[in-house]
Amino acid sequence: MNSQLYSPGASETQLLQQICLPLNHCNLPSWLLASLAYQQQPIPLQLDLISTWYPKLFAGLKRAETAEQRAAQFKDFMNFRFHLAQGRSQANPNDQPPPRPKVNYRRLLLGWLFDSDNQQGAAWRSWVESRFGLLTCFHHETLADPDGPAYLRFRQQCSQATYNTNELYDQLDLLYCFCQQELRLRHPNGEHLSLYRGCTALPEYHLEGQAVKLFNNLSSFTADPEAALRFGSKVFAVQVPLSKIVCFESLLPRSLQGEQEFMVLGGLYRVEPFKF
């Protein structure tokens, strides 16, 4: 790794300290993952121990001939490994439903698509904090201070969202790794995708004479700039490293419906205003 390329200046370092945690569960420090240099020159990103624990899963996925076959294999493995409900009806239709059905990765995906500021969104952002060390900057409200009451409310929602779940973070770990393998198969010679983000305003900073944007630790992007307009009057084009894409709409066919949506890890990004 080129230490000079990945050495942020004083102003960027100060900002990164505000949005990054000191510990995570991946092979890169959070400040590096959130930096502008990482956007320009991404480094392969790996979650701890996944390749050690699940080598047969990913080797089997590589042998599948089509994306649909890989998705089917992945869903079958997740159902078996985490004992996920198969949608069986109750034995007696008059029986009361369980008090709180266990949340799984599929429900979190659907919840995120519906509203990223709901409980499912809190669970996603809590997982990002744990695995990648990127602090949540916004959830219902601005979370400027990790010791403040707004962030405490967020953590309470995270606890409610992940209570009584079956290794939920491990499920999301595997989903991310499946997404990464699929992206490498579909874009064997690429490191970035051009994606779009529509918004009314984004935190903007001037670092070393250039304006950069700060995205929340997990944000929705789209491959369609027209679709991005539905989420804000300002549309930005962003070169997103493949390694920072957590999930995308066509990863699990017939399971998700969105605006060609991509779930992207946050941090600092150089962006370009998109002109229609």
Can I get a quick summary?
Helices cover 39% and strands 19% of the residues. The protein is of the alpha+beta class and 276 residues long.
Number of strands: 9
Largest sheet: 4 strands, antiparallel
Number of helices: 11
Uncertain runs? 87-91
Q: What is the overall shape? A: globular
Structural class: alpha+beta
Order of SSEs = HHHHHHHHEEHHEEEHEEEE
Q: What's the rounded overall pLDDT mean?
A: 90
Ends apart, CA distance between termini: 38 Å
Q: If strands are numbered along the chain, what order do they take across the biggest sheet? A: 4-5-8-7
| Oligomer designation | single chain
Helix content: 25-40%
Strand percentage: 15-25%
Radius of gyration based on Cα positions? 19 Å
Secondary-structure topology with pairs:
Blueprint: H1 10-19, H2 30-33, H3 36-40, H4 50-53, H5 55-63, H6 67-82, H7 105-114, H8 119-132, E1 138-139, E2 141-142, H9 149-162, H10 168-186, E3 192-199, E4 204-207, E5 210-222, H11 225-228, E6 234-241, E7 245-248, E8 261-269, E9 271-273
Antiparallel strand pairs: 1-2, 3-6, 4-5, 5-8, 6-9, 7-8
Helix pairs in contact: 5-6, 7-8, 8-9
